[in-house]
Amino acid sequence: MSSSALTRGTLRVGFQRNTPPFSYAPDPAFEPIGYSVDLARLVLAKAFDGTRQPPPLEAVEVTSTTREGLLAEGRIDIECGSTTITEARLQRCAFSLPIFRTAHRIAVKPGAKTGATAGTGARRVVGIQGSTSQAALASAPDPGFAFTFVGVPSIGAAFDAFLDDPLVDAMVADEVILRTLLLGDRTPDGVTLLDVRLGEESYGFMMRKDDPEFVRAVDAALADVLASDAYPKLLDTWFVDESPMSSPNGTGTHETL
């Protein structure tokens, strides 16, 4: 890009609509809220602190499928949500320090058989096509049942398919997002979260590699915010059981919602 995001009149920030509690818009108008939204506001305000007037922030809706393209095209300057820091993405994009550590879980509809007695029929598991959830499911040594993956473009589309498609038996996604989505009124009684946790990964804010000045400013500001008194209050607002920098312990029981 021709100039750093630090020098532009408006800072365009990519957020997702359906990834609670990280980034979501509960109303039709795109006015996102969530952990990543609040953290981004704190970090971006601090990135300009003492150097120049912080620019107005423009929230731009992105999905798991569109976020990298919108960043590369300059239609957003930074993406703040639940994007996993992977080696493949680091070849194309820059990332901030980690903002959250998580794993993936599988939600199963009432009556869907997932054990060894399920027979030879594969269960249809919906998830985001090309996502780290898909990769974690595919690489799991034993997810507990035979499956066929059904790929869709976004977490919202995956959740709709899980609830509405009678041919879909289960859904795989980030465990925090999945549990939060399942707390909604649309979820039927008896949905089960399997105890197996798949993969382990860190989320970060995603930026362009050709804007190192902005990346450095965001990292420095993020480090300050994570060490500040404001950060524990932010955690208390959005999380009850999760600790963003702790690893899943891989134990537990099935959770019926």
UniProtKB/TrEMBL annotation:
**Source taxon at top rank:** Bacteria
The family database entries (SUPFAM superfamilies) matched by this protein are listed as: Periplasmic binding protein-like II
Domain Solute-binding protein family 3/N-terminal residues, every copy: 10-242
Residue ranges spanning the membrane: these are none
Q: Which Pfam families match?
A: SBP_bac_3 (PF00497)
Q: Which UniProt keywords apply?
A: Signal, Transport
UniProt family annotation: Belongs to the bacterial solute-binding protein 3 family.
- Record's protein name: Transporter substrate-binding domain-containing protein
Name its species. Streptomyces atriruber
